[in-house]
Amino acid sequence: MKVLITGGAGFIGSHLAERHLERGDEVYIIDDLSTGSMDNVEHLKGNHKFTYYIDTIRNRQLTAELIDICDIIYHLAAAVGVRLIVESPVNTIETNIQGTDVVLSLAAKKRKRVLVASTSEVYGKRDQVPFHEDDDLIMGPTSKGRWSYACSKAIDEFMAIAYWKEKLVPTVIARLFNTVGPRQTGRYGMVIPSFVRQALSGQDLTVYGDGSQTRCFTHVSDVVGALMGLAENFEAVGEVYNIGSNHEISILQLAERIRELTQSNSRIVFVPYEDAYEEGFEDMMRRVPDTTKIHHLIGYAPKCTLDEILTSVIEYQRQKMVSEGALPVFPHTSVLVAN
Ligand code: UDP
Questions:
Q1: DSSP strand pairing (50-54 vs 26-31)
Q2: Measured at the alpha carbon of residue 85, what is the angle toward residues 186 and 9, in degrees to the nearest 5?
Q3: Measured from the CA of 277, which atom of ligand 1 is nearest?
Q4: CATH: 3.40.50.1240, 2.50.20.10, 3.40.50.150, 3.40.50.720. Which one for 2-179+218-243?
């Protein structure tokens, strides 16, 4: 089988590429490296079944050629990370909406299977958890930049479903909840790599707000398995599926656990949201997926525990910081073996 992964040099895309190659599939990736990095796929370059293009999916000619030769298209290319979204709203909206338009309109010509990666952000300000795929989406006002991300991804979802209903393009939507693991960068505000790097370097762990907001974290390996299961199951076509974990933890507890596992002496400090993001920033207090639907379809159940997730990120970030010269080769901190 041949698969195309848009955003394939990103955190999730690179793990997905790796898994398909391990299975013997041919993998094509296209990435403009806006948030992805060739470092993420460096180890795949020697594989003759791996082909990469550093380009934007808005290059219609190239994207059309790649879609034509592939059986499945994973559309992962998107503007991600709350900080990036607050700082570059124009780019967020354009990348998400125009990019998806290009992919779906080209896939429509040959009715290729497309998995569109969406996000739990689309649930917006809902405060009743867990979130079910058919729940109403509750957005904030257009004056608040963060909602542009949720709305742009909601439009992507509408487009994907419309292409199935009207043009019989077999699409499926994966709503990803907080996904973490090696290769995720903290540069765009993601909490776990940020806390881990702060803990390893002895800096303060910056908890935004009062830290009582909660999230459920899923290891990227569990997410990749779910994406492949959805993309290859015809019953999933035209449907939306949550992918996430049900283990809820507050951000303050998360900071404390990372400090313990890294044996760090870093302090935990509280940063007001307006200092961390922008005036009037609205956070979601809880975000828990209902995963019954994907469990029924493909038997999905995440395997990695939170401690396993944290341990894998700590190991990865430690090695990265050593290679960047930000940590000595034999740092005084070590990872506690999680029990
Ligand atoms: N957060 C934090 N400190 C940081 C980065 C993030 O307290 O240095 C908080 C953030 O405000 C949110 C949670 O951690 O409540 C998860 O943030 P992330 O950007 O990883 O994902 P989100 O769920 O917001 O998309």
A1: parallel
A2: 55
A3: 11
A4: 3.40.50.720
pLDDT of 336 = 60
Residues of the chain with pLDDT below 50 are 333, 339
pTM above 0.70, yes or no: yes
Active site residue 208: no
- Looking at residue 339, its pLDDT comes to 46
Query: How distant, in Å, are the alpha carbons of 39, 142, 172, 297 from that of 135?
Result: 38, 21, 17, 19
Question: Which residue has a Cα nearest atom 6 of ligand 1?
Answer: 191
Ligand 1 binding pocket (C-beta < 6 A) is 82, 178, 189-191, 194, 206-208, 213, 215, 251, 283
Atom 24 of ligand 1: nearest residue by CA position: 82
Tell me: the pLDDT tens digits for 97-118? 999 999 999 999 999 999 999 9
Q: Closest ligand 1 atom, CA of 284? A: 15
- Residue 215 CA to residue 177 CA, distance in Å, equals 9
Which string of DSSP letters, residue by residue, matches 52-113?
Answer: EEES-TT-HHHHHHHHHH-SEEEE------HHHHHH-HHHHHHHHHHHHHHHHHHHHHHT-E
